[in-house]
Design goal:
heterodimer, A: about 110 residues, mainly beta, 4-stranded antiparallel sheet, about 0% helix, B: 7-stranded mixed sheet
Chain lengths: ~110, ~110
């Protein structure tokens, strides 16, 4: 299973942009890059995914490096409700394997 | 309906008990998953069902027995568990294609005494 590497934790102030990095140097051509987040005492929640091109949705943006060996999840304006563990996952066949994730703290 | 519903939310069981966890989705998803999550750790994949057939067992001990009675339901039967099996058990479903999102339930918090 291809692996991802993320910083253990990051901090942000409310209403500031947040860039969450993920390295996946062993990514294969058919791996999709998925991001999920888990708020305290809840199940993981889908955020965004992509293959090669940058993606935007109502929650976030995903910037994928040209060689696909890294990606960045962008929260444009962090709110207190965005405090969570963010997981970057390579999804290929039928396995969705979680890495260690980044714990994001948001300060008022 | 974009929900994955897990019951019960909390379960306390003795080491000699037999219990079952239930998961239900009505999104027409053909893949369903069981994960185990210990405190402050990421979810660990246990089982994957694809089209109601077990496709992946991540070397899970036999005291955990999954069952997929139909395309909407997924059960996890528990027997002779150990205290170290106490964890949050998460169910998920998806269209079984990496270009689609997975949906997770809120989990069952299991305590083995």
């Amino acid at each position: 299973d291809a692996k991802t590497t993320q910083p253990n934790s990051m901090e942000s102030n409310e209403e500031e942009p947040v860039h969450l990095p993920c390295n996946h140097s062993t990514i294969s051509g058919t791996d999709y890059i998925h991001w999920y987040r888990q708020l305290p005492s809840q199940g993981p929640e889908y955020v965004i995914h992509g293959l090669t091109s940058n993606v935007n949705n109502r929650m976030a943006s995903l910037a994928i490096a040209e060689d696909r060996k890294s990606s960045t999840l962008i929260l444009h304006r962090a709110t207190l409700r965005d405090a969570a563990v963010y997981y970057c996952i390579l999804y290929n066949t039928d396995k969705l394997i979680f890495g260690t994730g980044t714990r994001l703290q948001v300060f008022p | 309906d974009t929900e994955v519903t897990q019951t019960p939310k909390h379960l306390v069981m003795g080491m000699t008990n037999k219990k079952s966890l239930k998961c239900e989705q009505h999104m027409g998803h053909r893949a369903m998953y069981w994960y185990k999550q210990k405190a402050k750790k990421p979810p660990e994949l246990m089982f994957v069902y694809s089209y109601e057939k077990l496709s992946i067992n991540e070397s899970v001990p036999s005291r955990f027995s999954p069952e997929c009675p139909n395309s909407s339901l997924l059960n996890l039967h528990l027997h002779a568990l150990q205290p170290e099996d106490s964890a949050l058990y998460l169910c998920a479903s998806s269209q079984d294609h990496p270009d689609t999102e997975a949906f997770f339930g809120q989990g069952t918090r299991l305590t083995v005494v």
